[in-house]
Amino acid sequence: MRMTGPTLKEVLDPGNCHCRKGFYAPNVQATCDKHKRFLWAHPMNKESTHDSMAFARTRLIELLKEQATKLKEQGLFLVGDSAHPLCSFLQTPHDQQDMQDDCDRVKDAHNCCLSANRIWIECSFGEFIMRWGMFWRTLRFGLVKNGNVISAAMLLHNFIVEWRMTDKEQSGSEKQHFRQFTIDMDAPSQRQMTDLTGELPHALVTDNNEPKPAGRPSMSEKRLMEEGEVLRNTLMLALAKDNLKRPKESGMKHNN
Amino acid sequence: MSHRQTSAAQQHTCGYIPGEIKVAVAIRLLAGGSYLDLMPLFCMVKSSIHKAFDQVIHWVLCTFEFLLPALPCCTNLLKILKKRVVGIFMGVLEPSMGLQ
Fold first, then answer.
1. Residue A42 pairs with which residues in a beta bridge?
2. Out of A16, A102, A137, B89, which could bridge A48 as a Cys pair, Cβ 3.0 to 4.6 Å?
């Protein structure tokens, strides 16, 4: 999601809103469910904020930390990518370094299963961007309004998904639309917008999968991390017990 | 949207533009429409279109909310999250990710 550079009135350090891909963008943290509804989102982070830091500053992590014991008892946890910290309520994949001593490929199986679960958030963001053409071009509002517009669009996306769930016919047509998604550059409205903004539409979704930067964790974070590792090992053992492995390429089905 | 309401919006209304028209304008803008297309369609000036968009965004944010931060207590948290279990692992709730 691209946006215009914020002014000095909005932020003291506009340069921090510039991403390594060469444009200004907000860092949006979000959580979704299997129906691709956004259950939580925080779109107001500066681009240069690391995912783990952006997530650590939210109300959600406070809530999860408060309820960590009860979530652990119930065996409930979130799945995040390698940029997020490992906790008892947030499972992340094994690092490449850990994978070197993975003779039985149990860690690989664990990573594969986590990756299969993380696909929902990728699809949610994909659908979200494809649905709202406003995000195909640079957002030209202020920083705060950008956040509000993204939040509102996510809430409307949830509303549409909930409505889609009750209407099978609509669900089918939406699926078809997203599968065959293309931007009609020659449509009059698109041509007009291109003339106005001087920018071609581009449904851009990029994620940030850099590993979490090293830092000294607090005692409580250390405990949550240890609990997270215990949970990770339990999951790995469960996968090994059921002999679940990453499917080989020969057994994969490819989309045409 | 009824014809009467559309007609109402197509006249000079001294700011009294029906909510349905404002929502229609905002949805079109979110979907990637140009305000230049919407001006003749709804007979609204540029400033009214921008004002209507801001107003609808505010309405949406006031009306709907994300589920997780709104949870008041643990019982509800567990109850709601349990319904959203997904994937191979029995306990997995939902994936979480950052997007640029």
1. A29
2. A16
